Amino acid sequence: MKFFAVLFLSLLPLWAQAIEVGEPVAPWTLLDQFDQAYTLDGQAKILLVARSMDAAKRVDVALQGQPKGYLEARHAVFVADIQRMPRLVAKLFAVPAMQAYNYRVMLDRDARIAPRYSAPVDNVLWLQLDNGKLVARHEYDSVTQLRQALEQVQP
Fold first, then answer.
1. Is residue 10 domain-resident?
2. What is the CA angle 133-134-139, rounded to 5?
3. Residue 5: inside a domain, yes or no?
4. Is residue 1 part of a domain?
5. How many alpha carbons lie under 13 Å from residue 79 in its C-beta half-sphere?
6. What does the pLDDT average to over 37-43?
7. In the 3-class helix/strand/coil scheme, how is the chain assigned residue by residue?
8. How much is the pLDDT for 79?
9. Which residue range forms the structural domain that includes residue 119?
10. Which of 26, 60, 117, 118 has the fewest CB atoms within 10 Å, i.e. the most exposed one?
11. Is 71 a member of any domain?
12. What does the pLDDT look like over 10-25, one tens digit per residue?
């Protein structure tokens, strides 16, 4: 009997559906690169999700040269999935390097949040939100396209 319970619980994530346009986005809380908590709420208009180092680098390059508070002014939140990064590397090198960024990075250290939003791993996923509901989704594999999309958003 225990075997079937364990089997059922291990297969449960396979039945989970990706969030669809029109559905509410479940709130979550993550720590940023300064270990400051952030909770997703109805104020967020854009959720940028990077599930790989390449995708996170695209976001970084797209934001280079922008003033501090650029994402916040656009009600945008950036989530980086760093669960594949060895913890020691993250602690000693990656997270300290992120502290030099002039924007916040919500760090999904255990892949609790980013997998909820399906997209190709190397693309930056852009989720457009309205009062906590998903209204549109886009994927960017180009820094130029991502930068242009961010510039279109009025602060």
1. no
2. 160
3. no
4. no
5. 28
6. 95
7. CHHHHHHHHHHHHHHCCCCCCCCECCCCEEEECCCCEEECCCCCCEEEEECCHHHHHHHHHHHCCCCCCHHHHCCEEEEEECCCCCHHHHHHHHHHHHCCCCCCCEEECCCCCHHHCCCCCCCEEEEEEECCEEEEEEEECCHHHHHHHHHHCCC
8. 97
9. 19-152
10. 26
11. yes
12. 433 433 457 889 899 9
CA dihedral 125, 24, 14, 142 (to 10 degrees): -10
Q: Does position 61 have pLDDT exceeding 50, yes or no?
A: yes
The number of folded domains in the chain is 1
- For the domain that residue 97 is a member of, what is the CATH number? 3.40.30.10
Long-range contacts of residues 62-70, Cβ cutoff 8 Å, at least 24 apart:
62/143, 62/146, 62/147, 62/150, 63/101, 63/102, 63/103, 63/150, 66/102, 66/103, 67/102, 68/102, 68/103, 69/102, 69/103, 70/102, 70/103, 70/150
Q: What is the pLDDT of residue 14?
A: 38
